[in-house]
Amino acid sequence: MTDFTILADKALRDEILTHEESLAVLQTPDSRLLELLQAAFTVRERYFGKTVRLQMLLNAKSGACQEDCGYCSQSAISKAPIERYGLLSQDQMVTGARRAAAAKAQRYCIVISGRSPIDRDIADIASAVRSIKQEVPIQICCSLGLLNERQAKDLKAAGVDRINHNLNTSEAYHPEICTTHTFQDRLATIRHARTAGLEICSGGIVGMGESDEDLIDLALALREVKPDSIPINTLHPASGTPMEHCAPLTPQRCLKALCLFRLLHPRTEIRIAGGREHNLRSLQPLALYPADSVFVNGYLTTPGQPAAEVWRMIEDLGFEIQVDAVPTTQGSTAASEPVADLHS
């Protein structure tokens, strides 16, 4: 029988779990789940205490993507009934940043659909980021698809702090979820972002039909990437996508996956991301024992838990929200001002 305290001790010594130990985490009997969570929390508490960082997304360009990612409601092969629109205006992106700061978010992530951003989109986003940095005390992350080195440097120069580009799954399983770009294409974007001096956010999706071995391989591939943060999504099957009939996840499976990533990435920010509300349901608070970060106010095409409810959940756990001081160019109280509908 696996002694989870031994696994926690290994993680605290920066020793990698063996394949057999990693499998044991994912295959933990539900009756021992609390023991596993305690071991993961031992590691989480060492490096992050009881603090939680919040992040908020803006879907700044929706639908009409050329890629065939089977999980995505915005893909070329999706028939999901989602809202479709072009790039939001600079004012709307700035308004989104004010909303994120008002929600106590440490970071604001601007996301657009599509294989790669066109140069005009890069210029418009860069201009919006410059305006945000002048008045809103918040870090900026961008998730814009495949990037070349020049685009990454332009974003860095504008004040973008971090790039999100998920590996999503193992290299072996990647062709099962997408055929229009490769796992290596994703690694190349991460290299370009890092060369430009940007922080890296990269994680994956649990529940797309992958095996335990695929999840372990993903976690190990991310150890090679060494991201600054790892978002762990759990599939929320969207009607009209190829994965709408994937076997449902249990809350216990989601928690075991989070524990695996914590034990293999002891010092890295781990964020509970898309699908949290759908898959964890009433066990959402337990996810903050391995994870130290969470999204508020929804995702790209699905709603999520309002910020005030997340604040209450964190408080009820005896944890606290951490918002690091982020300087602005000019300083502003804009984060507390009323904001308009982003799509108006």
TrEMBL record:
UniProt-annotated binding residues for [2Fe-2S] cluster: 109, 141, 201, 271
This protein's name: Biotin synthase
Entry-linked Gene3D superfamilies: Aldolase class I
Gene Ontology biological-process annotations: biotin biosynthetic process
Catalytic activity reported: (4R,5S)-dethiobiotin + (sulfur carrier)-SH + 2 reduced [2Fe-2S]-[ferredoxin] + 2 S-adenosyl-L-methionine = (sulfur carrier)-H + biotin + 2 5'-deoxyadenosine + 2 L-methionine + 2 oxidized [2Fe-2S]-[ferredoxin]
Cofactor binding notes: Binds 1 [2Fe-2S] cluster. The cluster is coordinated with 3 cysteines and 1 arginine. Binds 1 [4Fe-4S] cluster. The cluster is coordinated with 3 cysteines and an exchangeable S-adenosyl-L-methionine.
Organism this protein belongs to: Nitrospira defluvii
One Gene Ontology MF term: biotin synthase activity
The keyword 4Fe-4S belongs to this UniProt entry's keyword annotation: yes
Job of this protein: Catalyzes the conversion of dethiobiotin (DTB) to biotin by the insertion of a sulfur atom into dethiobiotin via a radical-based mechanism.
Coiled coil: none
Highest rank taxon of the organism: Bacteria
Gene: bioB
Residue sites binding [4Fe-4S] cluster per the record: 65, 69, 72
Residues annotated as domain Radical SAM core: 50-276
UniProt family annotation: Belongs to the radical SAM superfamily. Biotin synthase family.
Protein keywords: 2Fe-2S, 4Fe-4S, Biotin biosynthesis, Iron, Iron-sulfur, Metal-binding, S-adenosyl-L-methionine, Transferase
Subunit structure: Homodimer.
Annotated pathway: Cofactor biosynthesis; biotin biosynthesis; biotin from 7,8-diaminononanoate: step 2/2
